[in-house]
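Protocol step 4 of 6: record predicted structures for both targets in the notebook before any analysis. Target 1:
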Amino acid sequence: MSTKLRVTETIIWLTGHTVSGYALIWFSDGEEGMRLGEDWEVLSSVTKEEWNAMTRMVVNDSVNEDRTEDWICAHTAFSFSPDYTNPFFLWEAKGRAAQALQAVKVALKAHQESRPVSEWAQVALAHGWKPPKNWQS
C-alpha cells in the first residue's frame, strides 16, 4: 500500500461563493483521502500529548501512530498560514502549499526516525533480516 501527501488543486464552497486553491490531500493507492486540516477544530485546541491520550489504542495501550502523525502534519501545515481553515486547509498560492508540504514531509520524517524500533523488529534485525526500503517498525 502506498500512501502519499500531495498538493492538489481544489475548490471549496463557502456561503454565497466558491474559492479555488491548493490543499494537501492524502492519497492511498491512487485514491483520494483526507485533506489536511479537516479536524483542525479539535487538533488546534490540544497538545500532542493530549491528542495521543485521546486517540490511544486499546491494544497494549500503545499510541496510534497514524493519529499522532495527523497532529504533527496539521500543526506543521498551519504554520504556513493557510488562507482558509474550514472545512480544511486551503492556500490560494500553489507555492505556499508546496512549502507547507515540504515542511510536513520533514516533520513526519523526523517523527518517524525518532520512534524506537519494535521488539520483534530488533529480534529480526539481530538474526540478519534486511528491511525493505522505506520500512518502518
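Target 2:
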Amino acid sequence: MAKFKTKFDSLVQLKQLKIDEIQNNLSKLNKALQEEENILNILENEFSSLTLPKEGNFALINQFKIIQQAKIREINQKKSQINFIKSQIENTNNQLKEANLEYEKMKYLQSEEIKKYLKKIKENEAKNMDEIALMLFKG
C-alpha cells in the first residue's frame, strides 16, 4: 500500500528540521562551554602558580601586582563568557522543548488524518463488500 500523503507532512518535516537545527546549535554551545571552561581552568592554574617575589625592589613587586590583577580580570571575563554561554544553552534547551512539542502536535495531527483516511477506506470496502454480497444474493 502506498504511503498516504497528508496536509501535515510538510509541516512535520519543517518541525523536524527546526529540531535538528536547534540540536546542532545546542551541540555547538556545549562544545564552546567545554572549551571556555578548559581555558578558565588553565587561567586559574596560572593564577595560582603566581608567586610573590621574595626579594627585589618595589617596581618588581608592583609588576607582580599588575600581572596578578590582569590575570584576575582575565579570569572574571572568562567566567562572564561561561555564564553567557550557559544562559544561551538554557534558552536553546527551552527552544528545543517548544520545538519538540510543536513537532509532536504535528505528528499527532498527521496520524489522526491517516486514521481518518484508513477508516474511510475500510468503510468504503465494507460498503463495496455489502454491494457485492447483495448482487451475489440477488443473482
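Step 5 preliminary note on target 2. The chain has one domain: 9-51+66-138. The mean pLDDT is 91.
Proceed to step 6 after PI sign-off.
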